[in-house]
Design goal:
34% helix; alpha/beta; 4-stranded mixed sheet; Glutaredoxin; 11 helices; extended; 2 domains; single chain
């Protein structure tokens, strides 16, 4: 009997030892797999806890280490654990860029460091990359990624905004102006400068010339300066509205573009409850500006662009609008009756509304974009569809920075739960009446069954 007990104890020890060894091996294996292979799922609303593909591509263009310094106290009266909020946000970027370092400095405990850094707000962020710095006072993907775009640019990109002829203002606040677009350009590292053709002897080649729908006739000498700029290989964005070209016909001829009289009418616009003179573009050419671009863009009061043959330009149609529409050469006043297609005078869709041109001048690629609507980038219409994205892509390509894709804020879906009266009645009946009755009947049945036994 003693020998049997001894043998049993020995077997029990062996089993315990094997179990312990296997358990340790399992824990070690799981730890190794967790360290080497990380899999994450974002099940948050609208994927708020993961980066957009544009931000990921941007991080991958940054070769050197990125340093983020946050000047924040342990707790904030309004935001609470501000360090935790920022740390969680930056960790999403660190998954893509492991050499992104995060450092916290308490401005209360270390006031000299905060003062020397010029910090004024609790939670202010300083991002450093290649001896350059950017500051942020708000934390979201749009603001952070735009700061990275500015850091990635080796120099400020200049936009020369033609003025003196009633052009749309890049800093204007009216519905017609381009102030919101200009603000977005400034956030991503562009610098806009008003330029008058009456002052300097010629247009400088260091930047992109923007001609935004002049309202009065340009002088012959002014047009000559633009043509000389074009001959030297200058880059150009030309926004053209319906009506007169105001002296810029020689420019159109030089580019080999014919502007059809009339305005584009799009019956599909009515289905979206917007005027039929808002041409909807859904077809895009194969070009860097429109690569992976699948948004609807809106070109209000647009005109058709026709490309002539026999020029030295490489041309690409960037956007075609109104596939079921036409160019209306008559009146578009709805008070005069329904606008209909006239086979004899009108041009059927789809219709080209934006084109890109390029050629090589003195071993450098010259880039031109012409759009048949200045309204599509105006304050009153910039928020429609993908207008802002298309406009930013145009400017980035003209400036030679097509790799920098604009980062747009991600909309937060409505988290409110709206229930109808019938749904509320069903929920109340189910939880307050039916479920208690089920439990009560179940309890009575169990009690009756036990008593019978």
């Amino acid at each position: 009997m003693a020998r049997f007990n001894k043998k049993l104890r020995l077997r029990s020890r062996w089993q315990s030892g094997i179990f312990t060894a296997l358990f340790l091996i399992l824990v070690g294996t799981l730890g190794y797999l967790a360290q080497e292979f990380r899999i994450q799922w974002d099940i948050s609303q609208n994927n708020r806890n993961s980066l957009s593909q544009a931000s990921i591509d941007l991080l991958q263009t940054l070769d050197d280490p990125l340093h983020v310094t946050v000047y924040a106290t342990q707790q904030d009266l309004q935001l609470g654990d501000i360090r935790g909020i920022i740390s969680n946000f930056i960790s999403v970027y660190q998954r893509i860029k492991p050499d992104l370092t995060l450092n916290f400095i308490d401005p209360v405990e270390q006031p000299q460091q905060a003062q020397s850094a010029g910090v004024r707000l609790n939670g202010e962020i300083v991002i450093s990359y290649k001896q350059r710095k950017e500051r942020l006072t708000s934390i979201n993907e749009q603001a952070f990624s735009n700061a990275l775009v500015r850091l990635a640019r080796t120099e400020k990109k200049q936009l020369l905004i033609l003025s003196g002829h009633g052009e749309r203002k890049m800093d204007g606040i009216t519905q017609r102006d381009l102030g919101n677009f200009g603000k977005k350009l400034q956030e991503t590292g562009f610098e806009s400068t008003l330029f008058s053709l009456t002052d300097p002897p010629e247009i400088p080649d260091t930047g992109v010339l923007v001609i935004a729908s002049p309202q009065i006739e340009l002088l012959e000498g002014e047009v000559k300066k633009i043509l000389d700029y074009l001959a030297r290989g200058g880059n150009l964005l030309w926004l053209v509205d319906i009506g007169s070209l105001n002296g810029l016909l020689p420019l159109a001829e030089k580019l080999g573009i014919v502007f059809t009289p009339g305005v584009i009418v799009d019956p599909q616009a009515n289905r979206l409850r917007v005027p039929t003179t808002f041409a909807l573009a859904t077809r895009y050419g194969a070009h860097a500006v429109t690569e992976n671009f699948d948004y609807i863009t809106v070109f209000p009061f647009a005109r058709q662009l026709i490309l002539e043959e026999g020029t030295d330009w490489h041309r690409t149609i960037l956007a075609e609008a109104a596939p079921e529409g036409w160019v209306e050469t008559g009146s578009t006043d709805s008070s005069e009756g329904e606008i209909t297609f006239d086979e004899e005078n009108d041009v059927s869709g789809p219709i080209s509304v934006a084109v890109a041109l390029s050629r090589v001048v003195e071993d450098r690629e010259q880039r031109i974009i012409v759009a048949g609507s200045g309204h599509f980038l105006a304050n009153g219409y910039l928020g429609n569809g993908g207008n802002l994205d298309l406009g930013m892509n145009m400017i980035n390509w003209l400036a030679g920075d097509e790799a920098f894709i604009p980062i747009q804020p991600r909309a937060t879906l409505d988290s409110q739960l709206a229930l109808s009266e019938l749904q509320l009645t069903l929920i109340v009946t189910g939880f307050l009446i039916i479920l208690p009755l089920v439990f009560l009947i179940g309890g009575i049945s169990i009690n009756w069954y036990r008593k019978r036994r």
